[in-house]
Amino acid sequence: MSETGKRGKRSRKVRLEDIAERCGVSLSTASRALAGEKGVRPELRARVMDIARALNYAVPASATGRKVVLAASSAAMVDYVRNQFTLHVLDGLNARARALGVEIVTQPVADPAQDINVLEAALSEEEVAGFLFLTLDDEEVLSLSRSFGKPVVLVNGDDPLMRLSSVTPCNRSAARLGAEHLLQLGHRRILFLMRRGRRTIERRFEGWRDALAAHGITDVEDLVVEVEDWLPDLAAEAIGARIARRGLDFTAVLAAGDSLAVGAMLGLARSGHQVPGDVSVVGMDDLPQAAFHNPPLTTIHIPMREIGSAALDLLLDGVDGLAVPPRRIELACQIIERQSTAANTRDAR
What we know:
alpha/beta; Rossmann fold; 6-stranded parallel sheet; 6-stranded mixed sheet; 13 helices; disordered N terminus
């Protein structure tokens, strides 16, 4: 055979017919096995997939008719009712699912140690393509789900050791954007108002700290104000208590969420101070109501709908049976300037 003929033989694209011939099955059976459709014995499907991998065949994944189990934490469900961040994530997820012909099955998870058994039961359902974990990324869940054998994607959460794929906003750079905006307006005493507990919020804390450090501000311990929940009233009480204790020793507040930013403005008003005349306030999320507060809230726009749709796409990338390394997708955010921020005109010290 000529060298040209050898090169042509080596470069010939593997066809579905080649897979069917190797497995001794019909073309339609091979197609259904690779697409994950019903009516193919598990052992035969596994054999077809093994041959496809061996030949480096690009398996076309069909999502139509598949189910995806959405495991949602108690925190996500509380958020769904309270400030609608979760609402918009689910809106994007469900819109993408409808476009792809995928059914989303929601499973609340109150106690991971117990409820994980319900999720494991879905593993035997052939039409279940995988699992989305919404605001559910504690170590117990990550450990239990590692052996699922079907794709798992964390939604608005992350796995610090990258054992599972995840989709989040770029929380660290988002918070840095908010802090940089305030720094450019001349603010140096910038409080960070937060509720600790989740890694996603810790990333926001780190972004605020990064921005201050870049401007030579490293003594920041006294600038952190913590609350026990995401309720505006708690944020208002925390800001009011600080002012009563230390006076107005800050000129700006960056809140880890819009609900806390609204509470900060409320606490400032109760203490007789104006926004942005005395103190500038920046939130994070850009929920629809942010534009209607008094004053309208400057905030960081989080692409909430896109988080949901990107998570489903990432999950479906792994349903064809081929090994895909875990990936972390972080979506860029942007600042939305409104009337709650202004140039600093006073010395907080």
